[in-house]
Amino acid sequence: MVKAVVLGAAGGIGQPLSLLLKTNPLITELGLFDIVNTPGVAADLSHIDTPAVVVGRLPPNDGLKEVLTGADIVVIPAGVPRKPGMTRDDLFKINGGIVKDLATGIALSAPKAFVLVISNPVNSTVPIVAEVFKKHGVYDPKRIFGVTTLDVVRASTFVAEVLKTPSAAPNVVVPVVGGHSGVTIVPLLSQSSHPLPSDLSGEAYETLVKRIQFGGDEVVKAKDGAGSATLSMAYAGFEFANKVIRAVKGEKGIVAPSFVALAADPAGGAALSKELGTELEFFSSNIELGPNGVLKINPLGKITEQEAALVKAAVPELATNIETGTKFVLQKYEEEKNPKL
Ligand SMILES: NC(=O)C1=CN([C@@H]2O[C@H](COP(=O)(O)OP(=O)(O)OC[C@H]3O[C@@H](n4cnc5c(N)ncnc54)[C@H](O)[C@@H]3O)[C@@H](O)[C@H]2O)C=CC1
Ligand SMILES: O=C([O-])CC(=O)C(=O)O
């Protein structure tokens, strides 16, 4: 019995993600919440002949509470997407508040659920969820994940393109570490399961790295004001959710990058901090998943000088993004305590 919940289920990511989750036979209940249209999306999906019983709720009458109660895994793609010319950080003003409110709902109604955060800016929204959970006394760093899988999916696709073997893409595994925006996205191409040509250096190497780092911009530009990646993100979110579900069901050795608190595995986190040369509260490295969420945070391992430079460039931006998320929540709680602030 697995209950999966999607918050923001009527949106560009939410609908195809909910469709994919409905196709997973391991999911027995699918709860959909959004501020619009969830009854319709739920009615539509409920006609598909797979096991999940689908329920769609709106905010009035405790809809969020109803959907979240009994949830094992909650995926959050709620919030506004980018338009051309915007950075992910520009979304913080609106999405920060949305994620804080939804995290509060999860802390109250499904504190043990695995929480998969898609809403941007991920580098700041994951710290928001963590702070809200701390405030409610239900924080377990092993259970909160920033979804960076789309970067991994893009890296597989783009590397296979460079190797002129597009059909190999699903088998190409490239760890992408750091975070989920621009220079914080660090592909470790030297660890690709399908080695790149040894002469891929200079401009060709930089072009490939930049394409993985700024792949989101390609989609934003092509959609020309109609939003950002939705279908590839739904695929990536489904991939990661399935990995979490499979690990919970007892499958061993499932490893994938995700933006998590280093406190989720203090020993692994300390080793990673040593490699980074600094202590960040959150970082996306390869993590091994287990029945309780994060089992182990893996080190970066052997990386090239170029990759070390990319990691070095990512660290200060990550630190700022993390602080933005944390401070936002703490400030909101201060304001709630003292409304005159
Ligand atoms: N982590 C990643 O790799 C990626 C993250 N994203 C992010 O995902 C988010 C969603 O993107 P799209 O689906 O394209 O946007 P969208 O605008 O199509 O859908 C967002 C949905 O959230 C809903 N929503 C807004 N406030 C809500 C609330 N308080 N409670 C519940 N639902 C609420 C809206 O009604 C809408 O249906 C954006 O922040 C985007 O930047 C997008 C692509 C990749
Ligand atoms: O680029 C965006 O705004 C959406 C996103 O996170 C991505 O596609 O990686």
From TrEMBL:
Group of enzyme by EC: oxidoreductase
Positions bound to substrate: 82, 88, 120, 154
Residues of the active site: 180 (proton acceptor)
Positions of the Lactate/malate dehydrogenase N-terminal domain: 3-146
Domain Lactate/malate dehydrogenase C-terminal: 148-329
A GO-annotated cellular component: cytosol
Catalytic reaction list: (S)-malate + NAD(+) = oxaloacetate + NADH + H(+)
One annotated GO biological process: tricarboxylic acid cycle
CDD domains: MDH_glyoxysomal_mitochondrial
Entry-linked InterPro entries: L-lactate/malate_DH, Lactate/malate_DH_C, Lactate/malate_DH_N, Lactate_DH/Glyco_Ohase_4_C, Malate_DH_AS, Malate_DH_type1, NAD(P)-bd_dom_sf
UniProt keyword Cytoplasm present: no
Positions bound to NAD(+): 8-14, 34, 95, 118-120, 233
Superkingdom to which the source organism belongs: Eukaryota
Listed Pfam families: Ldh_1_C, Ldh_1_N
EC numbers on record: 1.1.1.37
Keywords: NAD, Oxidoreductase, Tricarboxylic acid cycle
GO molecular function, one term: L-malate dehydrogenase (NAD+) activity
NCBIfam families: MDH_euk_gproteo (TIGR01772)
Binding partners and assembly: Homodimer.
Homology family: Belongs to the LDH/MDH superfamily. MDH type 1 family.
Name under which the protein is recorded: Malate dehydrogenase
Species in which this protein is naturally found: Roridomyces roridus
